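fyi for ur records
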Amino acid sequence: MNDIDAWVWWLVGAAALGIPLVVTAMPEFGMLAVGAVAAAVFAGLGFGAVAQVLTFVVVSVALIAVVRPIAVRHSRQRPQLATGVDALKGKQAVVLERVDGSGGRIKLAGEVWSARSLDTERSYDVGQEVDVVEIEGATAIVI
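which gave:
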């Protein structure tokens, strides 16, 4: 055991920290692994055990303190490209059959959709353009 240099042990530790990173998808393990690699570099340069451990701690804590909040903020953002029914909200459609509070038909994104007016007192005649404000099931809510 004494024949193996300290930098090899740090690299083994970095690889060991990489396993839970892949299995759990927790980026903190990757940051700890980077700290272990930094400690391996210090060990390879001949620094003592105290400097190696301090390097591991400082690099790991710095990465967690800086990178983790950025990663959390990005993971909570909505996708910038809306897909599915979310992409249809805000689009314009053309009335095919009179639309009122009880129903009707519109042409939306090249497809025929059932629709109803958001304001039950309001109706839209054939040929009018309407805006889609919501999709409920297979019905577009329009204004």
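The chain has a mean pLDDT of 92. thats all i got for now
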